[in-house]
Amino acid sequence: MAYELTRIVHFGGIFVVAATVLIHYIAFAPTISREDARNLYKVDIAFWAASCITLIAGLVLWLFVGKPAEFYTANSLFHTKVALFLGLLLCSIPPSKFLRKEGRHEVGEDDANIKMETPTMSRSLVRGKFLTIAVILICAFLIARGVGL
Questions:
Q1: Span 32-55, pLDDT tens digits
Q2: pLDDT bracket for residue 30 (50, 70, 90)
Q3: Are 33 and 115 in contact (CB under 8 A)?
Q4: CA 29, CA 47: separation in Å to the nearest integer?
Q5: 146 vs 19: CA distance, rounded Å
Q6: Taking a C-beta distance cutoff of 8 angstroms, is the pair 13, 46 a contact?
Q7: Domain extent listing, the chain
Q8: Which of 57, 61, 68, 107 has the fewest beta carbons under 10 Å from its own?
C-alpha cells in the first residue's frame, strides 16, 4: 500500500513539474508585463513545491519501498536521470530569482501593463528545462523497462 501511494504522489509531482515547466516555456517571453511576472511567480512557487514532493517521493521509492535499492543504484540511466533532475533544479534558480524580484510587487491598475525585459540567460535556461524534462521522462521509461542494468 505504501508503494502505491508513494508512486501516485511521485507521479503527481512529476506531472505538476512538467506542467509548470511548460507554462514557463510558453509564457517566459523576451518582454513580460508586471502582471505576467506576478502570475509566473505563482507558477514558479508551484514548480518548487512539486519538485520537492517529486524528489522526496523518489527518494522514498528508491531507498525504502518498492524494488530493492540495488535495482536503481546499479543502473547508469538512473544516475543520469537523477543528475538531469538536479541540473533542472539548478537551471531554475536564475529565472526564479528574476520572478521573485519582479513578481512579489503589488500590482496596481496603473503598473500592471508595464513591460519589462526578461534576462536572456533566464529565457535560455527555461527553454533548456523543457528539453531536460523530455530527456528525464525518456530515461524513466527506459529504466522501467530494465534498460541500463
A1: 988 889 999 999 999 999 999 999
A2: very high
A3: yes
A4: 18
A5: 27
A6: no
A7: 2-105+116-144
A8: 68
